[in-house]
Amino acid sequence: MTTIDDVRERLAEIRPAGLSRDLIAAGLVREVTLRDGVAMVQLLPGPLPPPILAATIADIKRVVGALPEVVGVDVQIARPSEQAQAAIPGVADIVAVASTKGGVGKSTVAVNLACALTRRGLRVGLLDADIYGPSLPTMLAIAGRPRVEQTTVYPLEAHGLKVMSMGFFLDDTSPVIWRGPLVTGLLRQFLKDVRWGELDLLIVDMPPGTGDAALTLAQQVPLSGVVVVTTPQPVSVIDVERGIAMFNQVNTPVLGVVENMSGYVCPHCGRLDEVFGAGGAVHLEQTYGLPILARIPLDAAVRTGGDAGVPIVVAQPEHPISRLYAAMAEQVCEGIEAARTAAPRIVG
Amino acid sequence: MSPSALPTEIRRLGARAVRIVWADGHESEFPNTYLRAHCPCAGCRARPQRSLAVLNEPREEIYPVQIGVVGRYAVSVEWSDGHDTGIYAYRTLRDLCPCEACAVAAARAAS
Questions:
Q1: Chain A residues within 8 A of B63 when measuring between CB atoms
Q2: Which of A86, A301, A348, B88 has the greatest number of beta carbons closer than 10 A?
């Protein structure tokens, strides 16, 4: 008896003109049904130009019609589906927190910004894309492994955030010794396979630099914007300028600059000591017209919060630094709206 | 990004061409062979020009089977002959616009 598999086998013998593969291998067949001897073949719209499509339909009718017990062949073109689909299902906006130099406190900023955004009533996710040195499990005091069902991974939760990190899959001291392709592969998987649920905003804590991970992220998803973290001294600012150039190339709006470790107020005499120099963010503002989202001084309370797993924005919401983060969250939301552009419609 | 480098619609014109409507109202029509000959992927760019022409000479008519958006700056094209590594940045595509007005403007800018 002729089965659907027999029909598909026949379809795999058809190679439309100009196409390197057969119909099945090229993924052009959406559905095949067989009922009362009538075979229905549904093709995807678009890929085949009209004259080739006409010839292909004739081929299908001839080849499938020659199967025993098949009395009729019905070839349909599927209705075009709207391509305006979210890059990550359920996630409205994706914002990266990036620094091109390490050690500027990027993860601390990412965590506190995410918490400040939740306090604004947004549903926020936090993805730790630093595969080599994941720090979010410590900073949010999350232990345990995410639930994995086949290829779907469920994020863990802390302080109202949904969180995913490579750190969840590692023992505390085991290093990740991977080459670039593996890192991009995992990042792609984190973007594709994590079931975030409904999120207003996904914050991605980027690994430092303008390398594989940054490029993969910019290509895999339409980023709504980037927050660039720097310290005031020139050696950090120079790297940041490279990062800004990269994000310009991939048309990703830089929402602004966070100057971290921006001076230290002596708890004894109250004098401001500019440990890392001054002027970094101002230079970036003047050269690139980038808004300064915040200048955050060194404060032991921030460090304590990070190491204890309770970010300062959560532990002490009225602390002056928490207020800086609240203002930063507001500017990030405004910046996303201002930079919003629609993706092109792909038709035909 | 300026509206001149922001597509609002990308339309496949079957075996013939791809048409892009830009946010500034301009329309570009790229013949498939022209678009393919300018494939920006490393493999196509690294080849010496002579063999590039030969390799890009379509044996049969080729056409895009799949066009996808890459981030917010580019599109990727999967061609009917299986070649799928080209990522065309919007800016590159606008600069490649083969219409007469753009060609004249490009020649003027170059001189």
A1: 18, 47, 49
A2: B88
Strands A38-43 and A29-35: antiparallel
> What is the pLDDT, as a whole number, of residue A83?
46
Which residues in chain A touch residue B89, judged by CB atoms under 8 angstroms apart? 249, 251
Cα→Cα distances A48→A14, A45, A86, A118, A197, Å: 13, 8, 26, 47, 36
Task: Dump pLDDT digits (tens) for A306-328.
Answer: 888 899 999 999 999 999 999 99
SS3 A29: strand
The Cα–Cα gap between A290 and A161 comes to: 28
* pLDDT one-digit tens code per residue, A161-218: 999 998 888 776 676 666 777 778 888 888 888 999 999 999 999 888 777 788 888 8
Task: Name which of A222, A150, A167, A163 is nearest A197 in CA terms.
Answer: A163
Contact B7 A344 (CB under 8 A): yes
Give B 41-80 residues with CB within 8 A of chain A.
58, 60-75, 80
Strand order in the sheet with A29-35: A29-35, A38-43, A72-77
Whether the CB-CB separation of A92 and A202 falls below 8 Å is answered with: no
Q: Is the pLDDT of residue B68 over 80?
A: yes
Q: Which residues of B touch A46 (CB under 8 A)?
A: 12
ipTM for the complex?
A: 0.77
Residues whose CB is less than 8 angstroms from the CB of residue A300 and which lie 6 or more positions away in sequence, other chains included? none
DSSP string, B31-80: EHHHHHHT--SHHHHHS-HHHHHHHHS-SS---EEEEEEETTTEEEEEET
For residue A214, the distance in angstroms to the closest alpha carbon of chain B comes to 12
CA distance A26 to B29: 26
pTM of the model: 0.78
